[in-house]
Amino acid sequence: MCFYLLRKHLLNELTGYHFTEGALFDLTGSAVVIAAFWAVLYTLIGEYRDIFRKSRLAEILSLARASLLGTVVIFFTLLLDDQGVMNYRAYYKTFTAYLLLHFFITALLRTLAVTSMQRQIRKGRIYFPTLLVGANALALQTFHELARTSRHLGLRLVGFAAVGDTVDPGLADELPAKGSYQRLPALVRALKIEQVVIAIEPSEHRLIQDILTLLDGSPTRISILPDLYQMLLGSVKVNHLFGTPLIEIKQDLLPVWQVVLKRVIDVVGSVLFMLLAWWVYAFTAVMVKLSSSGPVFYRQERIGRNGHPFRIIKFRSMYVDAEKQGPALSSDNDPRITSWGRFMRKVRLDELPQFWNVLRGDMSIVGPRPERQFFIDQIVRVAPHYRHLHRVRPGLTSLGQVKYGYAETVEQMVERLKFDILYIENMSIAMDFRVLLYTLKIIVEGRGK
Fold it and tell me: Residue ranges per domain, the chain?
């Protein structure tokens, strides 16, 4: 509304202008549409997330980027073909005026909102129940540092989860013991914990890994003390200027806009592929039927995102009752595989029906390959961090599959796991396209198995 009047002034159309009923109605409708556009844009870049943990400086920098992006979109969709603008100087003035107007009004109001919330946090009216994991002198030192320097973060320590059999007497005097760290999932739920601070020696890698595995899938934030080696590597990200240095364990693997875009690509890509490749489906189905007796499709329960089971669908590549002796992994010379099934596996034709799983939301086009619970139980005995893979939707193809290939034993599954962890920690739309290109290369070369 403000920009409408400002624009009239810039174009020398304000003098003698009067609002008509129709013009006011059109202006109100346009304002609602543009406001909805800004709300969607802010949602996609994550502006409405973690609203109680915002920094004024970070908020202003984020708003500057969002304002520039949104202004460019609105300028090219609404203002570029405006009949009232007759020269490039007017275009520059219009663009600059809208950018500055939107940024300064929004920045002012959001700075006031963030300042108000930070004041409530410092007064203790807004706080985050926090659990300390540790029981030695380091945990006590961490408690004192958090109490002294992190009041502005709103962390309210409600107790500690003991690690080991020995508890520092000073820590026991300061905080109540809530139980062993092995009960962390139950403690987080019972105490409504919003942040967990792991205060044990950073060199205790195996123990830290066990703790992170226990907290996998929990909505709580997780912070851990860094060691000097990590600081020298530059892997310590400080989210606040003063206070105890902590590594924040990344919970959001992708920005909101990439989450939405990834799902859009999955849906659109699956629909287009199934429509355009219908003849491939028909030909493959006929060949499966001719190769051996039995159904064309094979359905099997696999474990998906957040540990939820789903039924995966594939073109049948084995003889009927191939697993009557129990679950078993396939190998290069597996006699259970039909001759046509062996060819399908080389060029990945047997995976094509899984585009239906992608469309249903059980899977994504790119993501770690889903496994059966039978093999997951064996893997987690050796590599508990396998559960990390359940943070994302499983995929038709994965970095582990293209870099390592199919696994024939549980040991090989564990070996392949490092590639899938690498994918998750570097997850992005660009990474997905790289994996897809690798997959196409393998299909063309016929190196699948």
Answer: 2-122, 128-248, 256-445
